[in-house]
Amino acid sequence: VDLVSGSVSASFAAVETKSRGEVLSSPVVSALSGHSARIVVGQNVPFIDTQTRTQSGETEYSVTREDVGVSLSITPKVEGDFIYLTVEQEVSNVSSSTSKAIDLVTEKKQIQSTVKLADGESIFLGGVKSSEKGSRREYVPILGWIPLVGEVFTYRKTTQESRNLVISLRPTIVRQSI
Description:
Blueprint: E1 2-4, E2 7-11, E3 14-17, E4 21-25, E5 28-32, E6 37-53, E7 59-79, E8 82-94, E9 106-118, E10 123-139, E11 154-169, E12 172-174
Parallel strand pairs: 1-12
Antiparallel strand pairs: 1-2, 2-5, 3-4, 3-11, 6-7, 7-8, 8-9, 10-11
């Protein structure tokens, strides 16, 4: 986060870990003291709100859109050489537990915190953890489709994935010269 005479810019790095880390994104934003800035890394997904049937028998849908992915909102307040930083972090995804478009479920994890930092001081925010288990059936083409015998050429592949999101922030006061 870089602050310039009441203006702040924030950069964050989302890190995914499973015995090693990977920087997924490192955007930079700027905000004036007392004003918010927001970063969203993800997708804007349509969700069906309501479904109605018209007199002619056609089905009409009311759709809203929602950001899904990683979002970070910051609101800095500059006081002297210190920055009070309100940080809102959210990780969301569309649950794979349902396949119907009208029944989509969004899973969300949110953290909000306010910290006091000196100019140029760094902070790491974490605690948003997730894990997924999956299983899928794979087979040898054609041979796996044969009734009774096909099971010999078929196997189940299971996967397990763990994620821990860590965000690094470094606010800097950017002073304007007049």
